[in-house]
Amino acid sequence: MFGYSGKILHIDLSEKKSWVEEKSEDWYKMWIGGVSMATRLCWENITPGCDAYSPDNPICFANGIFAGTPVPVGGKYGLASKSPMTGFIGDSLSGSWLSIALKRASWDGMVIHGASDKWVYIFVDDDRVEFRDASKFLGLGTFATEEGIRDELADDQVRSATIGPAGENMVIYANVTNDGRQAGRTGHGSVWGSKKLKAVSVRGTQGIKVADPETLNRLSFDITKAAQGPHTSKYRILGTSTNVLNMNKLGLLPTRNYQEGVFEDAEKVSGEYLHEHNRVKTIACAQCPIACEQMSMVKTGPWAGAMTGIEYECLFANSSNLGVSDINAAIKLIEIADHGGMDAMSMGISISWAMESFEKGVLTKEDFKCEQYPDGFELTFGDGEAAVITAEMIRDQIGIGKLLSQGTKRASEQIDKERGTESYKWAMHSKGLEPAGYEARGLKTFSLGSAVGTRGPCHNRTAAYDPDITGQVDRFSVDDTRGKLARETEEYAAVYDTLPLCKFIRRCFTGKADRAGAWPMIADLINATTGWDFEYDDIDLIGERAHTIKKAFNIREGWKRTDDTLPYRWMNEPMTKGPSAGHFTSDEELEYMKDLYYKAKGWDNDGMIPKKKLTALGMPDVAEQIGV
């Protein structure tokens, strides 16, 4: 085969052994790579119904079809396991040199089984697997662990995915970090912590063969050239943090735990302000000609020297949504998350839930005792210093940090049970995952996309905000187009997540972010890499299969229609300020849109997948297990 080795590496942490599984070319044509292949590997290797922290929950890596080739933004891998946050599929992407090292080691994917009895890291050295003592790295942050492993192995070409103290302490939203990038959102880091796996390191020295290198180089050059033009200027100059002012203008910027969509100090935490006052440099992922990540540093004050990459999603969660107008506090909070190995979005939203709970008297000063403040401290909106202390307590599982380390769903359930309160009404999550940085009360299609998301409410797994924000539909009303739009946008996103390609490249195929423009060139890229003969319709099937296997995984794990819902606040409390004031998504509206969506997907009214649908997609084995 071209583009693939045909081999999946299996590693058993319990038995300290490894073996090779060979896959057919037809299997690769079905699952391609990224989150689709990673989820399929989970489907094949997990014990259904197991606890997410059980040894029976495997860690599944899947490389990208374009990793290590000239294809721009193709240096990504997928990571999947059962999420401890949701109990459903936890699928993540990361762009890094790790995917290239894995490809050069001739592995299309890895499945890590079992659990170790002591802390280890795995070193994959081409076709050799070592289980190495990780005790010396315990307590180190993610970046420091990567550097420590490189020093120990005396090779700066070794690439590692690591967990930090948050993963070791099993903070439920702990991340896996590699090359400064995060495989986040669904709690992979805590799953690694449960297995006493500190890192996976890879050294690859083999070549990568493609079917038609001349065509692949020509196509890649054309896309790279377009990626240096106006279609990506927004990302190259200010990065995604430019969305702060854009969302604020539309009344969609989550503010003070999603109470409102307008932040009065948005300019002070905007991408423009960050660029002028804190930017150090802009960096790119592997194989990326765009470079969107804004490395930013605190230059004065108590947090001087704090530095990390800033993106919109982590920025909103640790600024406007905390009512914090001090950009230095936001940078420090994100640094704590990145180096500690925590999802900055879930961390920030968990802190915002605690802030609102404190201001409403559900939590008291007594709950916030720590060594620095033995009598406790007040956690109120706008207090950046208190937020930083709280973030460190979460990372280290100290005091209130133990509660908040379980995320908003479990924290609110525990407090409400103990104190007879109703903090669930401002616990912002769906399926146990904290939402994205778009106020869904002002985006009807996106509210549907958030409710039905297989890993929870996510802007990366659905582009359902796009027809709302661009004016394709009235974002404040419901009509019978929403089910079809939600389906199309999630399957569109699933194509990019399967290849995987960064979605920022989407306008660089024809200048338009649509399937009609992108799919023919994507088919050409696949064919030049593999020698296959994919056509337009085959690209659509990539997205449909990718989404279907994730939904099938969830059904097997007990998903039901009532799981497709939204936070209480989004369904019961209209905003009172800004352009989106007065709007929310009622239960009746959501149920109507879900009916439309399930029909558009070809499912039954309970959201279950018919056997004939699964069989038509080439999944008869899945049909036998969960089809209706």
Instruction: Quote the distance from N terminus to C terminus.
Output: 36 Å
What would you say the CATH architecture of the largest domain is? Answer: Orthogonal Bundle
What characterizes the major β-sheet?
Answer: 6 strands, mixed
Uncertain residue segments: none
Domain count: the total is 3
CATH class of the largest domain: Mainly Alpha
Helix content: 40-55%
What do we call the CATH topology of the largest domain? Answer: Aldehyde Ferredoxin Oxidoreductase Protein, subunit A, domain 2
The strand line-up of the biggest sheet is 2-1-6-3-4-5
User: What is the radius of gyration?
Assistant: 23 Å
- Number of helical segments with 4 or more residues: 25
| Average predicted local confidence, pLDDT | 96
The total beta strand count reads 15
β-strand percent reads 5-15%
- Name of the CATH homologous superfamily of the largest domain: Aldehyde Ferredoxin Oxidoreductase Protein, subunit A, domain 2
Structural class: alpha+beta
- Assign an overall shape: globular
